[in-house]
Amino acid sequence: MRRSILGWALTVLGLCVALLGLALAVFLGPDGRRTTGPHEIETDGSVVVTAPRVIRWVDVQVDILVEVPVKKPIFVGLGNTVDVENLVDDVRRVEVTRFAAPWKLTTVDREGERPTVQAAPTSLDWWLADAAGLGGASISTTLPDEPVSLAITSIGSSNLSGLKVSLAYGIKGGFLKGLGLLLMGIGAVLGGRMLRRGDPAFRDDDADDEIVYVYVDDDGVEHQLTEAEVAAGGFDVVEEEDVVEIEDDGPPVADDGPDLEVEAESEPQIEPEPQNESEPQIEPEPQNEPEPRIGSAPTYVWIDDDGVEHELTEAELAELGDDEYEIVDEEDDR
Amino acid sequence: MSRRLTAALTAGALVVGLAGCAVPHRRGDGRIEKVAATREQVTAIYERYREVRNAAVELLDPTPLSTVETGPVLAVDTGSFEVSQKLKRSGEEDKGPIDVTRVETPRFSTYPLWIFAVVRDSERDIQRLQIFERARAVDPWLLVATPEALASTKIPALRHNGGGQAIVVKPSDRRGMAMSAQDAADAYARVLTDPTAVADAGITEDAFIRQMADVATKNGLLDGVQFEQSWAAEKVEQVLRTSDGGALAFVTLLRRDRYTVPLDRKITWPEGSPQQALLEDGIQGSTATLNYYHQIVVYLPGGTAKPRAIAQFGGVVQGEAG
Predict the structure, then answer these.
(1) Cis before A52 (ω within 30)
(2) pLDDT by residue for chain B (322 residues), tens digit each?
(3) How far apart are CA B52 and CA A123, in angstroms?
(4) What is the Cα gyration radius of chain A?
(5) CB < 8 Å to B27, chain A
């Protein structure tokens, strides 16, 4: 039931998105915009400007081409309304007070003391988009989220007589975005349909690929078989049943018949870890025994008649006999 | 593929797809306003200012300064340059990094636009509280105020709107404060002209008032010389709301020192001083006036506390003999 509601919701949403995308693509066309013009604006002055709040759209891509005959210099710029209003303050001008797409203008002639703006518009640094040229100029920009006005001015001593304006507006990449929405909507519609039908794509992994073969013997006892056993055993598949939903990971319960309790394989009990054997106590290190002092063995030196010294061991000395030598000097060599 | 994952991917694709589209819509907010300047513009303003100032310093010529300064700041700087010219004393170019520690760009619905910035001068251990103003859409950004405070002086925190811009207060607005910014400016002019008025003026006798009073007292003690001093406040233009509900006001004061010197006396100023440059021969047997501009930043606390000056800048701008 819940899946069905979700499916329908997704279908309706997808349909809306698809229709929106289709309408967008058809309305804007392959270049993503609507074009109108050239339209003539009657003026013999040097400034045409949109009044505050005439341009109120945001994130719309606009392309504006302004043209004047005989290659007169002309400027077109889009700026914050605060800047533009100050620029044209007290300047005689044509003011566009209302505009409706594709091209419906209401204009008013505003009086002013000055015939044109006080500075070369190209020298100002606050334009959001601007261009100047001989006989024509064009800008292409996306309308920002701030109050903006459009100004068209002549440059130097010329005027704007014969002014023609062409306008294109749309969404940047609007055609592709429309197609994208259309595809997205179609995808959502299909997704909704699949959801309503309980397509396996919308099932959980656990239920997706698991096929369980059950053989019921003559005693009515069910035996679970593997796919290989089924293939080898020549069984006939007499009934196919979708297990619709597995809510949890607990043991499966047969729909009909006696409850079959499947005992989980008894897992080998993990023996309790042996407690750490009592480590042998480390005997206290024996205290350094006092090292024996190494004493010097006595050295016996016998001096023969020629005055030559001969070193003797204690045994050699004993062999000589007491009458053969006499100890004449004892010297401690330490 | 699990159901949840499928649903998440579908929702994600929808969100990403829709977020990628900048959906055209009509502006709900009909207010006509603009932020005075962007960060990039502020950087460009300071770079240009320093470039022009360094050129002026190098040439010892104040003329280029008029493209980056105006009003009292230009007048005081021009006076300094003229003194340097006469003394053939070159200044030092500012080649170190500009340490702009704080920038506030309020929103305006009409011109003039202005920005407030705090610039630290490590060499002198001071901070400058500067205002750059664009008077008309066709004008450049010009420095109009640059009072100085000690580096240790705490500049009151400002209040900001939802967009993060500092809030501008009308100079005549006194809501939440002991007086309006314009009233405070007028009170300063009154007290500086007559120090005994401080009790009734509703302002604090701060360091600036005491310093100016000392100067006036010394000048008044010149033997045989008649000295008069008067002050006038100009129209306050730049006021910002502080976070305590008060305001920070940039006030410009014009000071006129008038000396009447008998024939047997002569007033001169030290060599190299701006006054000496303006009145080279001093004053003897005549009357002369020296005009000064002083810019102060007055902090008007929220509530009933008295306003006080927290930064100042000034200098002599004109000398009139006769």
Answers:
(1) no
(2) 455 555 655 666 665 555 556 678 888 777 899 999 999 999 999 999 999 999 998 888 889 999 999 999 999 988 888 777 777 666 565 555 668 999 999 999 999 999 999 999 988 899 999 999 999 999 999 999 999 999 999 999 999 999 999 999 999 999 999 999 999 999 999 999 998 888 889 999 999 999 999 999 999 998 889 999 999 999 999 999 999 999 999 999 999 999 999 999 899 988 888 888 888 888 989 999 999 999 999 999 999 999 999 999 999 998 888 6
(3) 18
(4) 53
(5) 56-58, 145, 147
CA distance readout (Å), B97 to B43, B100, B119? 12, 9, 11
- Is there a contact between A201 and B1 if contact means CB atoms under 8 Å apart? yes
Residue B172 neighbours by CB under 8 Å, 6+ apart: B180, B181, B182
**Selection from A203, A202, A223 nearest residue A213 by Cα:** A223
H helix intervals, chain B:
3-19, 39-59, 71-87, 181-193, 198-201, 207-220, 274-278
Residues A44 and A134 in one domain: yes
Is B297 part of any domain?
yes
**A181 in the same domain as A305:** no
d(CA A252, CA B237): 83
Whether A77 and A125 map to the same domain: the answer is yes
- For B310, the token pair is 């927290």
Amino acid at A123: S
B2 and chain A: CB distance < 8 Å anywhere?
A: yes
Domain contains A84: yes
For residue B260, the cross-strand partners are B226, B287
Residues from A in contact with B at Cβ < 8 Å: 10, 17, 52-53, 56-60, 80-87, 117-119, 124-126, 142, 145-147, 171-172, 177, 180-181, 184, 187-188, 191, 201-205
Range of the domain at B269: 34-321
Q: Which domain holds residue A326?
A: 296-334
Q: Which token pair is A136?
A: 């024509």
Of the candidates B148, B137, B162, B144, the residue with the CA atom closest to the CA atom of residue B37: B137
**Residue linked to tokens 């001071």:** B126
For A163, phi then psi, to 5°, come to -65, 135
Torsion sign across C-alpha atoms A193, A198, A200, A202:
positive
Structure tokens that stand for B103 in this block: 């920038």
| Nearest CB to B24 within list A58, A147, A187 | A58
The verdict on residue A56 lying in a domain is yes
Count of structural domains, chain B:
1
State both tokens at B41: 């513009």
* Locus of tokens 């329908």: A8
**Same domain, yes or no, for A87 and A69?**
yes
Neighbours of A171 (CB within 10 A): 22
**B8 is a domain residue:** no
User: Is B137–A87 a contact, with Cβ atoms under 8 angstroms apart?
Assistant: yes
Contact B111 A82 (CB under 8 A): yes
- The CA-atom distances, in angstroms, between A61 and each of A48, A149, B22 are 21, 15, 10
